[in-house]
Design a protein that fits this description.
By secondary structure, the chain is α/β, with parallel strands linked by helices. Among the domains are: 123 residues, Alpha-Beta Horseshoe (Leucine-rich repeat, LRR (right-handed beta-alpha superhelix)), CATH 3.80.10; 152 residues, Alpha-Beta Horseshoe (Leucine-rich repeat, LRR (right-handed beta-alpha superhelix)), CATH 3.80.10; 303 residues, Orthogonal Bundle (Transferase(Phosphotransferase), domain 1). The protein contains 14 helices and 64 strands. The strands form twelve sheets. It has a 27-stranded mixed β-sheet, with helices on both faces. The longest helix has 23 residues. It is globular and about 105 Å long. The N terminus and C terminus are likely disordered.
Length: 1096
Amino acid sequence: MFCLNVLVAGALNEDVRILLEFKGSLSDPDNNLHSWNSFDSSPCNWTGISCSESEVTSINLYDLNLSGSLSPIICNLPRLLELNVSKNLISGPIPEELASCISLEILDICTNKFHSMLPLKLFNISTLRKLSLCENYIFGEIPVEIGKLASLEELVIYGNNLTGSIPGSIGDLKRLQVIRAGLNFFSGPVPSEISGCESLQILGLAQNRLEGSLPREIQKLQNLTSLILWQNFLSGEIPAEIGNQSNLELLALHQNSLTGSIPGEVGKLTRLQRLYLYRNELNGSIPNEIGNCTSAIEIDLSENHLSGNIPNELGQIPNLQLIHLFENMLQGSIPEVFGQLNQLQKLDLSINSLTGKIPIALQDLPNLVDLQLFDNNLEGAIPPLIGVNSNLSIVDISANKLVGTIPRHLCKYQNLMFLSLGSNKLSGNIPHGLKVCESLVQLMLGDNQLTGSLPTDVHKLQNLSSLELFENRFSGPIPPEIGNLSNLERLLLADNYFFGTIPVEIGNLVHLVAFNVSSNRLSGYVPRELGNCLRLQRLDVSRNGFGGPLPTELGELVNLELLKLSDNSFSGEIPGSLGELHRLTELQMGGNSFTGTIPLEFGQLTALQIALNMSHNNLTGQIPDTLGELQMLESLYLNDNELVEEIPASIGELPSLLVCNLSNNNLIGTVPDTPTFRRIDPSNFAGNRGLHVWGPEESRPPTGPNGTTRTSWMKAGSSREKIVSIISVIIGFTSLIFIVSICRVFKCQGTSFTSLEEDQMKGPGNVLENYYFPKEGFTYQDLLEATGNFSETAVIGRGACGTVYKAMMSDGTSIAVKKLKSRGEGATVDTSFRAEILTLGKIRHRNIVKLYGFCHHQDTNLLLYEYMENGSLGEQLHSSKRSYLDDWNIRYRIALGAAEGLCYLHYDCKPRIIHRDIKSNNILLDELLQAHVGDFGLAKLVDFPYSKSMSAVAGSYGYIAPEYAYTMKVTEKCDIYSFGVVLLELITGRTPVQPLEQGGDLVSWVRRLVRDGLQMCEIFDKRLEISSKRTIDEMSLFLKIALFCTSASPYNRPTMKEVIAMMIDAKEVSSSSPGSPTSETPLDKDAPSGTYRYIT
């Protein structure tokens, strides 16, 4: 007995020595391993240690904030069965000496910073049952030796940089139950040999570059419950043999290039719960057999080319909660049997060619939250009792042919946030229930035949950010109570019969961005209080009966981009204060009774591009020479005034001018003979008795820019003028409000903030609960302490939506906390807050800032982000301090990383996302100077049916695409333009906007220097260490890419995929050496789907 005890004690002492040496290779800032010490001769009581018969068998150091390296000394523990160091910060290579852990059954090093290839010797551990290497920086290929791990049951390697094909030897693993290998760079086909994994239950290969067709041999995997192959390049048809996998519960093949029809054999999958086939190229009809999938909860077949009728059999699936069939070519009527789906929460059939009436039985669905049927050909009335039995949050039935009245009970339960019934033929009044629907954020009723007046109790809609009633038959005055809508951002009342004056209370709407009351019967003065709406960007009061002088306070609206005052009875002199509107791109003042001279200050309106129209007034004096400063101006209308003297030569030099009408004035002299005026039809100078057109050569047909005669050129020019006029009349105030959330935000005082890390298996949907699940974590009090009560010393950034603080948590980790402005401080908090959490919460991409969670406490909204050690690109690039960015290769890597992130948003999210505020300050840099795109306060989900309206004007000054100013339409090409500006920043080192004497805006400055023939290297940032011709050639190619991205016309700009291809080509063209991006700056657009996240 004594000898046995001595042997045991000796073994324990040896284990102590090994463990302490292992600890020595780690850094433990939180002292979590304080129990590991030489004074305790028995390690079995140490943190993370488990023993069997007094010998160490398991080491579990999960989430202890450890760093350092992994010492293979641990393999000297002879009976070690489990080694788990997951969710730490351990780095370096995976030691090949781990192969000497001859008894090891579980190896879990997930979520660390290991950076190496897979050691071949690792596959000699024949006892391994679970191998988890996920979320590291492991690169290279999976070796064929993986087939030697005969005992392997789980292979978890997702979220790395692995490349090459999946070896067929994986089929030798007969005991393998789980493969999770998504979010890598695997290419080639899905190996048919995988059918040899006869025990396989979960096959996750999503978000790779796999191609080819689905191997029919998969049918042999009779134990398979989850087949997860989304976001690859798979093609061909879905094999009918899929129906033989009777245990399948999840089939996720979305975001591929699958063709053909959906096989009827899918109806054999009676255990299937989630079927995701969206965003493929499937055609044909939806098979009736789909009704046999009686266990289905969610079915998403959207964004394909499906045709025919919606099968009635879909309505026979009793537990169905989600049906997404939008953006197909479906015809026929909505099945009446859908009214029997009592569990249905979300029904989206929008963007099809459906006809007939909305089934009245839909009003009886007790769980319906989201109903979207927009952009079809539906007729008849909206079911009158809709909302009585269901707690609706989103209803969009716009762009149909519906008649009748608006149902009374849509907001019975006060949860309706988004209601869009526009572009129908609805009549009658707005029902009382909507007038007191305090939950409403967006009310879109434009383009109908509605009547009545704006009620005085409209002030009860305190959450309303957008009120769109344009193109109806409303009448009466605009009630002063509208000034109590403190969150209102868009007020669109154009094309109605409103009369009276604009109430002075309109000045209380400090968040107002767009105000359009054009084409009504309003009169009186424009109230000077309108000057309080400092965020106003679009103001249209045209075609009314307003009179009197313009208030000088309009010059205080420095964010104004469009100002339309035309066709009223304004009089007096034009205030020179309007020259302070430096962001103005269109100014329409025609058809009034203005007198006096054109203000000299108008020469300061250098952003004017669409039009400057002062025609049909009583203006006198000379045309100011300062108008020659308007280098971007395309249309100038000064006709039908009393202007005198000569035409300034500077106007004839305006390079962008396409339309110039100076007719019917008292001008004299000769029209300057310039290329600009040569393409203007002479009729635009008629009615000036003392004006001579083009001197002695006027009988010669002058040539246009392409050698055409003036006659042929002016046909095109005249057409252009008509187009500009049509656009200015029709476009109006395009919607801006962005509603992305349909649930209450959770409170967190005394409870944990909500985490985003446990939604791997979650399915689709827009409700916040689908993404955020409470788990033990930080409380609001923790965040207060970590930021010093949100002290100024903790501030690391400020933006339009709020302030960002660095929070040092009690466990030693650093996170970034974004505190959004309260309602009294800034923009609509709820809209911005929900936009960002809903957008970022669905995204998992290495070049997108990671959102850990969110917190709502009383009136405080907090977003918790991954902390970025090196701040923003803008800070690094434009700070006076020495930067890390003096190396062009680093800038290249940052540009490529940001491009990858943006490309993912544009192509691989579901719905697709437009960032809307790409700028250098929104590109954040981690400790390795890898780029992460962030700040989604303005993000637009372009495919969200309720994203037709946005909550704020897109972008930051200097980055906004020129067409946005007059179309207010946000497209991916707006992001491309902004990204081009960022590229110019990286190349030149200049900020996007400089004082005029230093060149003005960056795009114009670069184009002017290029046009003047300046050497490329003179444009480059002087701080860059450019030591080779290869670098100069590469930067020159990048400059061309940037200019391509910032083309004035959106149609001439590339896509983000094309931008990335050009960036890669620029690297390859400049050098054939392996200097292109490494595995740490991937060239792939691989990251989880925007809407759904599954295990990979």
